[in-house]
Amino acid sequence: MASLSSQPSKKAIRSPVSTTNSSCQQGNRGPNSQTVKFARRTSSGRYVSLSRDDNDISGELSGGDYMNYTVQIPLTPDNQPMDTSVGVKAEEQYVSNSLFTGGFNSVTRAHLMDKVIESEVSHPHMAGSKGSSCAMIACDGKIMKDERGNDVIPCECRFNICRDCYMDAQKETGLCPGCKELYKVGDYDDEIPNFSSGALPLPPPSKGGDQNNMTMMKRNQNGDFDHNRWLFETQGTYGYGNAFWPQDDMYGDDGDEGFPGGILENMDKPWKPLSREQPISQAVISPYRLLILIRLVVLGFFLHWRIVNPNDDARWLWGMSVVCEVWFAFSWILDIIPKLNPMNRSTDLEVLRDKFDMPSPSNPTGRSDLPGVDVFVSTADPDKEPPLVTANTILSILSVDYPVEKVACYISDDGGALLTFEAMAEAASFADLWVPFCRKHNIEPRNPETYFSLKVDPTKNKSKPDFVKDRRKMKREYDEFKVRINGLPDSIRRRSDAFNAREEMKMLKHMRESGGDPLEPIKVSKATWMADGTHWPGTWASPASEHSKGDHAGILQVMLKPPSPDPLMGGTDNKMIDFTDVDIRLPMFVYVSREKRPGYEHNKKAGAMNALVRASAVLSNGPFILNLDCDHYIYNCKAIREGMCFMMDRGGENICYIQFPQRFEGIDPNDRYANRNTVFFDGNMRALDGVQGPVYVGTGCMFRRFALYGFDPPNTDKTEQKRESETLPLATPVFDPDLDFNLLPKRFGNSTLLAESIPIAEFQGRPLADHPAVKHGRPPGALRVPREPLEATTVAEAVSVISCWYEDKTEWGDRLGWIYGSVTEDVVTGYRMHNRGWRSVYCITKRDAFRGSAPINLTDRLHQVLRWATGSVEIFFSRNNAFLASRRLKLLQRFAYLNVGIYPFTSIFLIVYCFLPALSLFSGYFIVQTLDVAFLIYLLLITICLVVLAILEVKWSGIELEEWWRNEQFWLISGTSAHFAAVMQGLLKVIAGIEISFTLTSKSAGDEDDDIYGDLYLVKWTSLMIMPIVIAMTNIIAMAFAFIRTIYSTVPQWSKFVGGAFFSFWVLVHLYPFAKGLMGRRGKTPTIVFVWSGLIAITISLLWIAISPQKQNTTADGVGGGFQFP
């Protein structure tokens, strides 16, 4: 009779590394024998294969004109696919409801939680969700739920049983506690076959018994379901799309024949690129390059003239000015040379959709063939990074427009705070409403705080009639969500106080019963308690041993388990919003807090990111990684698709990362301190895109996981000799000949699952091999296989790779992942990839991909720039200096990285140059002896070239002239403050080993708390302000001194005064935003600012007068005046 078809397990299907020897399964069949296997789908989800003998059709099909295929009965109301087994559901519920902890010298434990938050959760798979109670005596557990939140009852007697009781019954007797009969294990534990090549989905039956329910209506006279009538009225079909081609050797025979991977896709369509390069117009870039050359030549002649024409009356003044001008010319060359070939790029999302998401003969269901993406969000301190901001970022990620089953979101809480944990649980619960709402009405942006704050008409481009009603309900739910998030600190504190008081009472009662001394103080640790009444394993509010920021166990919680591979349409049941025909699945969401112990170097953000790389490789292993700061949310829901257009395009296998520009919100309209940094993001980064790619700037970047593992880009010439097919996964040593299997633990650590995930990630990250020019691709349809359900052992492995000892004696942080040893680990990480030959791409989208916040306060901005400059100085004094780069780093890219390490040192020469006009006014001498015609011509040419270059750069970069001017102003402000402090700090650290930290010492509050730009007017005194204040006050005093001297002199020399005063005015104009920042909102400047600046400026002025007193008789012959732009 019927025989079961031999199908591979899901693990074998998932892993492209595993292969089978089909020749040993063919038996004694001849090479020309062909078979046709018919299969029917049973109620348990298994395919039953009917042989030719059973159907008596051997004579008709004895020829060799038939290929292997399977005829599947389409999905009808009485033929729906079964859910996964009860055992798998029980394991998934156990994983998603357990808090895993572990670490160094400790056992990994799974703490099954009754609830994660005190409020009611809406997602059916989160601990604490509503559900039926277990019918077992003395058990208060909840029964298991399926994807829709419906109860899962494993026995036909409908006996309610929870996960733990079910597992106990299976292990002990195998009998159902209700009917006392054996569980029908076969009907539940059979794996569902791969539906990636399944039939086209037909409309499912509606629930609720309305007129659209055709299950009872489409019955024939015998009472059986009339398939023909149902298919006719639903426009279904038994023809095209219901016969699907199995994968190679799916039934254990004919492994060497047929089409690999099913019917070839997209072969009947012309090949189209996913992205295009759009060079800058020649009418703009050609004059730009010509002017660079002209200014370079003029600078050469000018510096030569300055050197051969010294000022004999003031050689010290001439010498300082010449040295500064030579350095400025060198710094300008480093900055301008990489801008010779700026590049614009565009993407085609329609082509991406046609290639990867559209139904085809081999993919009738339209399951996506896009690779997976793991999104990393990092946070460290909920006091400095508000949990509500982080929660909004998470919600924007969970609702991204990308295949749900391909997205996994990871939050790294480096502080191990319960506040962050419960805030993320609240966000996961709220996402059950927010994410389907965004999909239903195509909401943009998908950050609820930003969306509900928009000052535009919300009904614009909304066609569904229930949008206004749904939005009103969603706004009310979000307001309640914010109240819960903002109330978490008090809630946790009250809960912990109550539980601690209970523990004290227990201790006191125990002391009384044991006869202890009642006067002895009770010692009870002030613990932080979770919502289920247990100790929080992370950092406590009152730090204790093994519960402080630098000493706590590793924590991992799968808050949202991996979704099902196929869409799950919602309805009106138990929902306040009608989600009919809306996919209600949520992406996988994981909370991670790596283990920290005293004596171990944790390497700040870089160490946290590397811990996420390892944990995600074990859990989801997405071939691409998108990292975001906790205050940078997804503003364009298609941003990941935009980046994937470059990764999946021809030549995308050589791209290590896609860098998106940073865009900021909450910046004052005038952008006083150049917080938007548009000159860098729209100018410098766009220019580097035409070389080897932009530098990595820390957030808004999508990495290729394989590149983060320290491998070189694929070399098809070498790999072709070591593989039989260009579309097969390669073993790890193929990519690195120096890496042996025995050396994998030394490089990657001793995790077997992590090592096995490397070639899989490399294979899944390749572009499609749909063009002859793609030498390193994968076959279409290779990524349609569903991922395995998470198991407790897998999560336990993920806990072990985030332990504090895992990186010991490995290459993490040195060659792999984010690189350690620098404050700016982002720049170093990108430099290492470029140095190995990878290239990067700059993706500027029409709608901003991401948006975040930036400090608008002067002091905060200076400290931000100080950190960047300190990292650059560290790079200069390390082996990451571009002088030591390999030949794989292109010349112009080398110039760019040299500028990254050298630009802070310009501050030394800039400070000297800013004091030169004051010294000229005090001394009565100028940088040139006489105003020569050649000097004025050179000065005029350099100035004209500078202005025209700025105009052309504004033209091709798309920035505004005002933004360029704000950038010039802040360049001088930061150059005379933060950059100089970074250089001093770096020199002291290298020479003497002394580390200096610049911290805030005083703070004054703003006037109006409701002013969104209130921080702009806060005055926070910091030592970084001393040098700009001294420069400004010295120039002002010098101008006043020279003016008085000129008035009361016998023969006034106004030419000297006007020249020097104009030079000082140039300095003061650049410092104008700095002066406004000191004034605050209404001129409330701290007294210390005037005291220090006045004393220092007067001291310098009096010291100069005492050293070089003014001569009584001066003539105009030996005095020259002039003005020069640096």
UniProtKB/TrEMBL annotation:
Mn(2+) binds at residues 605, 629. Keywords: Cell wall biogenesis/degradation, Glycosyltransferase, Golgi apparatus, Membrane, Transferase, Transmembrane, Transmembrane helix. One of its GO terms (molecular function) is cellulose synthase (UDP-forming) activity. It holds the Pfam family Cellulose_synt. The active site is at residues 414, 826. GO terms for biological process: cell wall organization; cellulose biosynthetic process. Residues 16-35 have a biased composition (Polar residues). It is a multi-pass membrane protein. Gene3D superfamilies: Spore Coat Polysaccharide Biosynthesis Protein SpsA, Chain A (3.90.550.10), Zinc/RING finger domain, C3HC4 (zinc finger) (3.30.40.10). The keyword Glycosyltransferase applies. UDP-alpha-D-glucose binds at residues 378, 384-385, 414, 604. GO terms for cellular component: Golgi membrane. Residues 1-35 are annotated as: Disordered. InterPro entries: Cellulose_synth, Nucleotide-diphossugar_trans, Znf_RING/FYVE/PHD. Its main location: Golgi. The keyword Membrane applies. The chain crosses the membrane at residues 896-927, 933-952, 1024-1048, 1054-1075, 1087-1107. It is found in: Golgi apparatus membrane. SUPFAM superfamilies: Nucleotide-diphospho-sugar transferases, RING/U-box. Belongs to the glycosyltransferase 2 family. Plant cellulose synthase-like D subfamily. Thought to be a Golgi-localized beta-glycan synthase that polymerize the backbones of noncellulosic polysaccharides (hemicelluloses) of plant cell wall. PANTHER family: X-BOX TRANSCRIPTION FACTOR-RELATED. This is Cellulose synthase-like protein D4. It comes from Salix dunnii.
